[in-house]
């Protein structure tokens, strides 16, 4: 049975997380960012590029290489620039490179050389186009489909076809599976099936992600061949998917086959639950394990989905900046599908989402327009999972994740939840000494707003951070991954810190000693923003200190301040006098008296000063003087 909190989190994730595994929502996967995989019959031929007007691309490329070789860099740059301006077809330029490997080697040396920086930069741009052509050629549907057909040709033809399918990598998988599904259904072409079964695992590691998504097929025989291929490929990233089938598949023969292939990859993993294996894989993605990197050569990463309506794979291109984080989220989702009670996957999912958002790249469209922000999930998840995310962020020194977790805690958690202990540590208290100041300040504000009543060693650090935030200062470690420290952010933290301290003061908090922040509070009475000056005076009223009361009086008596600010300061002086008695020197008292007795003073300000004067409980002589000064003989 699910406990209430886990059930609630799973419900929220289930409502918002789209397209994340075997039971993929096909309508979400077919969003605008989805790249349809053409069927073999729809595969189109590659486009042919051209060079600049009056000269072929081949002639321009050869002239570029010729003049580079003989050291006429000025002419070489002219031909190189002409090639780029003509916007050549990358595949056609790559074809020229294939025909002249020595010329390509020369270009590589020039790009790395320092003889002519302009030529080196220009050559690097040309090489980028060539790399794009290399990528386009090996992922061209027409070529992939032709190579699949060649699998049934001569032994040498099969060998070359497998080599080129391996070069196509993950892009070959949907076409192979489509053709295999046709061969399974049509006995007349069944002889081709064995050749494709032989070729499928030879694509290698890059095939694992699309094959794992294709385990959702409702074709048992095709699923069996996918299981065998994953086992033959033999990389541990397939273990979680295989173990999931071993635990959840409705057919016993598929369960047995999946478990056998788990043992084939790693015998020890056979006893590990799929939820744990998915969680371990998610962590590897989260920390950008090099073995899980997307296929090189493209400026994007591919996330694969299974379209149950079309019964085939579908590919979505996502930004490389958060490819690993998105894959970590998907693995966490499958961990929860495997075991809904496996809470650590929730904490890691939240951390991965915060980390993805910190890239500043818009979330992929398969999320859908109604997909909530990370903070929405975080505030719903509750403190246990937030502390998991925060502990990870503190350990990793990841300011973006830490800040997200702390802000969510600040919105929802009380004292007991904030002081949550995870293993030997208390993550939120550790956040008080985090290198990034935004994390430190948010942690202090979260604790202050919770109003702790039980003493804790770090209470002085809470006050220190609040004081720093109020003063708009404090050290910042360079290279942090949190938000850049802007004047606007500094002002926001100043206000939040002041509001948090006022809450502590009003509640007479017995744990957090605001007197330690007195210098910062006195300084804040001179802040450029009236709101901050007023808040500072209200907080100072609760400090039993002559300097605190005098700072309030100075603010009230300062004619440069707006009348509303001075009136508010006199109100704070009334509160200070009620709580602490008169701590003012005679000079301040006399100045207040002069204001009260001045006929030119603003009536509202004069009334506020009179209230403050009366609250000071001065000797009767002062009151007598006031009465007589206004009396008429």
Textual characterization of the structure:
The protein has 633 residues and is mostly helical. Among the domains are: 57-138; 382-523, no CATH class; 525-633, no CATH class. Helix content is 62%, strand content 3%. It has 33 helices and three strands. The protein has helices at 4-16, 26-29, 57-69, 73-85, 90-99, 101-112, 117-138, 141-150, 155-168, 173-185, 193-199, 208-214, 220-233, 239-248, 252-265, 274-286, 323-338, 344-357, 374-381, 383-396, 399-412, 415-418, 427-431, 437-450, 459-470, 487-506, 518-524, 530-540, 546-557, 563-580, 586-597, 603-615, 620-630; strands at residues 34-35, 300-307, 312-319. A three-stranded antiparallel sheet has the order 1-3-2. A hairpin with a 4-residue loop joins β2 (300-307) and β3 (312-319). It is elongated, with a radius of gyration of 35 Å. Mean pLDDT is 86; it is low at 1-33 and 40-53.
Notable features of this structure?
633 residues, disordered N terminus
Task: Write a short abstract of this structure.
This protein is mostly helical and 633 residues long. It is built from 33 helices and three strands. It has helices spanning 4-16, 26-29, 57-69, 73-85, 90-99, 101-112, 117-138, 141-150, 155-168, 173-185, 193-199, 208-214, 220-233, 239-248, 252-265, 274-286, 323-338, 344-357, 374-381, 383-396, 399-412, 415-418, 427-431, 437-450, 459-470, 487-506, 518-524, 530-540, 546-557, 563-580, 586-597, 603-615, 620-630; strands at 34-35, 300-307, 312-319.
